[in-house]
Amino acid sequence: MAVSTNVSFILSSVLAITTLAASQTFKLQLSESKEMTILGGGVSSLFFMFLLTAVGNLEGILMGKGFELQLVPEVAFALIVSLVVAGSIHRVSITCCLIFSLVILYFMNSISQKTYGLSESAAPVKVEKKKRR
């Protein structure tokens, strides 16, 4: 079920804040064992996904419908913030967050290309040349 950009911005912002609050609330438990530090990186990568969605929706609201996220300002900002959140949990969580966030970014890009990209099934136009006599 698709929602409007405004509703998506509100939902992703609330989920990002909730994920941030949960990761900071359970910081001690997430840093106790190896498995929990990996889970801390996973939670931080979910924060990355929600934050990137919120930033993209905010730019869509402010800049217009056709605005696209760029790698350097928006994605890098969301990635750095999520790595800082992961670093507040444990050092190993930073590496896990980076790996999981890159995987999430790959799948977000592929879904976006399938939804909004040009169709590859369009047949190429063949131009016939006139013969000289």
Write the layout of secondary structure elements.
Elements: H1 5-25, H2 27-30, H3 34-63, H4 71-89, H5 91-116
How would you explain this protein's 3D organization?
With 133 residues, this protein is mostly helical. The protein has helices spanning 5-25, 27-30, 34-63, 71-89, 91-116. Helix 4 runs antiparallel to helix 5. The termini are far apart. The relative contact order is 0.14.
The number of helical elements comes to: 5
Major sheet description: none
Whole-number radius of gyration? Answer: 20 Å
Give me the secondary-structure category.
Answer: mainly alpha
Helices and strands, in order, run as: HHHHH
Quaternary organisation:
single chain
Provide the helix percentage. Answer: over 70%
Report the mean per-residue pLDDT as an integer.
Answer: 90
- Any idea what the shape is? elongated
**Spatial gap, N to C terminus:** 62 Å
Kindly state the number of beta strands.
0
The parts where pLDDT drops under 50 for at least 5 residues are none
Strand content: under 5%
